[in-house]
């Protein structure tokens, strides 16, 4: 029997009084124990706040992103050991890959997004600046900085690795330390993964801590700079959310709860279509993956009334082919529930559903096992119920059996399907299998407010689609109502949960200094050599080049029109152009002005500018006619390191006419050598 340790204030701590035994889901044999009622929580909080937090906040977002990438690669090198340890949780190798590889992949996505979408700085700018004064010398914008407390992560038993890593990735990227509290039933896998992270030496001291067992009174010592992120049951979330200290001190609380997710067969997806076959495959997969122990698993199956019998037959046929048993055997396709207590809970909830629905597949008292003992292991078969009258039913819309249990129900039309979806009172995800765009739009408008994610799939997307039950780090994971009312992941949105958004106001120079991003109206540095001749490391924000003027002639306009083929009437027909309320007569092409601008500011000799990689936020603000002149102001707006050889420079470019009125504005991106 293994002792599963906690990691508190930099020390590994053995289980002690109050330790709980952990049994194998396969054999029922006790394999480990975890928990220590004497764990001192205040030193843990102090260690995170005073050691881990400052160390993380010294790093830029890019530094933290690089750290996440190294950590993910390290875990990937050792994932086989996590697979081996995970079998006793009841999952198959395929289940472990979802958990372990999914967690590592999520960390890699956040590492990439941190480098691409966040600055190499300590302040994240949220949105563009706002002009608050008439002359542009009083400005405002929103910034985000990391909370200066500790994030307490309370995770569910079903994904001991992914559940930890999907919270840690955005938390660490934000610059906040975390205390991880996994569910005791599977904490031996979480502890092994956590130990790999500590042993790697990649994270600074105090960045992460681990509690294997109860949190004691830790929540009573949190304040407004701390955060709590929870995944699990609605009942547990309610108890945690109602903590008086969390309420009194406005401690951030994010909850992702189990919900009655549904899948809808579109009325166009009749038996015999590719969509019908896809629907049956997806439902069967969601019922048996992790033995149905997924917060996103399909619990309610909605099909047109005419296709109920055919769907039951098709699903039953596929479920009958599923081999249940010892997950260590390659021939096993579905393993066990996590524990005997969980098995008892699932059977109790299934019986409750059975008071309103007929069980049409799966008998928990009679099913075949592959190389396992039904009495000692936590095994149940997939169970499919049919509720003939879902409008009158209560339990099928209120009760979740957290295992391989789902209920099929008929619907009359799309509006009726939407009303059935809403009866779940908030869910993480609903899937709709359809090729009909009108059905998809109707579903999005009618059911979107009740779901954190809507997953549409059909023959066009089925080869690339990741599946109903796969939360992706790029997209929001969470949902309203029963699903907890919170969000996780969602790309950089997930990082914002661990940062404070603050409105800052002041002069352009002050805001430039705060955000490390130059803005018009701030001081310009124009007494240096052409900025295109200066290396990335030498450039300062606000370095500006003001070009000479160039007159735009009618011959320029006509030559550009015939050379490019853009003979739009506003450039070629004086009378037609004057009839257009936007133009005083024939005008220059906008892209002609951009080409002339490049000719005005480009320094042609070889130098540190390696490539022009993009142009953002282009606006044409006033027309330019033949005889008008233009000049360019080119200013260094921001700098972002990309690798050891070069960095990205973002230039603010403004074109003005002979009256110094702006005619065009955009941002130019170049890669510059160090």
TrEMBL record:
Stored CDD domains: ALDH_MaoC-N
* Annotated Aldehyde dehydrogenase domain residues: 21-503
Alphabetical list of Gene3D superfamilies matching this protein: Aldehyde Dehydrogenase, Chain A, domain 1, Aldehyde Dehydrogenase, Chain A, domain 2, Hotdog Thioesterase
Segments forming domain MaoC-like: 542-650
List GO molecular-function terms, semicolon-separated.
oxidoreductase activity, acting on the aldehyde or oxo group of donors, NAD or NADP as acceptor
Pfam families assigned to the protein according to its UniProt record, in alphabetical order: Aldedh, MaoC_dehydratas
Residues passing through the membrane, by range = none
Classification via PANTHER family: ALDEHYDE DEHYDROGENASE B-RELATED
What is this protein's record name? MaoC-like domain-containing protein
> Which organism's genome codes for this protein?
marine sediment metagenome
Provide the organism lineage as a comma list.
unclassified sequences, metagenomes, ecological metagenomes
